[in-house]
Amino acid sequence: MSVKKRVEKTEMQWREQLSPEAFKITRKKGTESPFQNAYFDHHANGQYHCVCCDTALFLSTDKFDSGTGWPSYTQPASAEVVAEKSDRSIFFMPRTEVICAVCDAHLGHVFSDGPQPTGLRYCINSAALVFRGSDG
Question: Could you tell me which of 94, 105, 116, 129 has the fewest CB atoms within 10 Å of its CB?
Fold first, then answer.
């Protein structure tokens, strides 16, 4: 899977392109409510793309029900499409932030309590994603 060319826009351009919720989550590092988002209980076959730059980020074959209320994946579609950063915004709970490697959109966080084969749980906000179904 080849990585797309870097996408950079001004805050105003992102505001014009995105819904208010998608802007708050992807550009301001927000979090949507659990169990009340588009993809936590979504089971169709296809790919989940970045709402900001349309990069394919996660595959439905790697999605699992974590019971957390957010869509969860065992791994990204490829190692090159996501980046990870230390997140100490909650000082007593250091986390690892997951961002789109193409446009720096905040996607969610990754935790080490997922199922095998990776043992990882990429906990991702639905509002940061657009689903593209597969034919068949």
Answer: 116
Examine residue 91 and state whether it is found in any structural domain, yes or no: yes
Catalytic choice (50, 53, 100, 123): 123
Whole-model pTM over 0.85: yes
Question: What DSSP string describes 53-93?
Answer: T--EEEEGGGEE--SSSS-EESS-SSTTSEEEEEE-SSTTS
pLDDT in tens, 29-39: 999 999 999 99
* Res 89 pLDDT > 90: no
Catalytic-residue membership of 123: yes
Side-chain half-sphere CA neighbours of 100 within 13 A: 30
| Residue 96, strand partner residues | 86, 110
Q: Write out pLDDT tens, residues 59-79.
A: 999 999 999 999 999 999 999
102: nearest Cα among 3, 1, 2, 17: 3
